[in-house]
Amino acid sequence: MLTEKELSQQETEAMRVKVLSEALPYIQQFAGRTIVVKYGGAAMKDSTLKDQVMRDLVFLACVGVRPVLVHGGGPEINSWLDKLGIEPQFKNGLRVTDAPTMDVVEMVLVGRVNKEIVALINQAGGSAVGLCGKDGNLITARPQGDEGIGFVGEVSSVNTKILEALVKSGYIPVVSSVAADEAGQSYNINADTIAGELAAALGAEKLILMTDTAGILQDPKDPSTLLPQLDIQQARELMKNGVVSGGMIPKVTCCVRSLAQGVKAAHIIDGRINHSLLLEILTDTGIGSMIVASGYQR
Ligand SMILES: Nc1ncnc2c1ncn2[C@@H]1O[C@H](COP(=O)(O)OP(=O)(O)O)[C@@H](O)[C@H]1O
Ligand SMILES: CC(=O)N[C@@H](CCC(=O)OP(=O)(O)O)C(=O)O
Q: What does the record give under GO molecular function (predicted)?
């Protein structure tokens, strides 16, 4: 007869085996496919979570998935603006970007945040290459055009050649959300938007946005109201009736835009959870919200 302790040990082991074996069909399904991940929020501030995200990306690359990472860095830009005595200003969730602010955005995102992430991925055993929209003509920007918002850009076009060459050779591209227009003027583009447009242009299997909330909630104050799966129509309805508001609007909008352009599934997940990326991609239930074109099965 087994003791209570032995039984509980057996259950734990059975659970671990179940999780590992559950991953196999997903690894087989996604090997050779591109997954675009927007990395931001809590997972970018906490050093343990940071290391875990990098390990998860390296794990995915090792099993043949092709991850492309797009990073944010809004809080780090704020802290450098603060050091320089420039007051951060936002309009409809976008940073008002005058010429001095554009310089700071570019220095912080391209010069600091991007290179820190590249180094962390390399430390975790991967091989990362840092880029911004300018590299290899990846993204051409155009002004977003709102009055008084300055050098805030939109994606005018994407040339995926450089990314395709990198992922094919086993590199993990790490992309900052700064791009230039045809005249070489730099623009500051929201990182969620860049991730959505890259996912669409690459024909990615998935777009995954990591943030500081469980996913899309029916009641934004109650995590137990998480919506695990919804289609494009339902997502649009939630924006229309105000259930999705504030910072969640650009996220859901870019998910819907990428799905309309052929991405199979767009996920909004909680970056505060350990190994949230692997749990979302490689398990039956996932952990966040998945928006799909109708008919798609997890
Ligand atoms: N229906 C909703 N479900 C979840 N979060 C929502 C919802 N509606 C609005 N939100 C808000 O959106 C926020 C996420 O957007 P944001 O703070 O811009 O994220 P990030 O900084 O990761 O880009 C949540 O913290 C929450 O306050
Ligand atoms: C135009 C605009 O607002 N750009 C963002 C770019 C960085 C970003 O998107 O970072 P998070 O994902 O951390 O918010 C900004 O300047 O903060």
A: acetylglutamate kinase activity
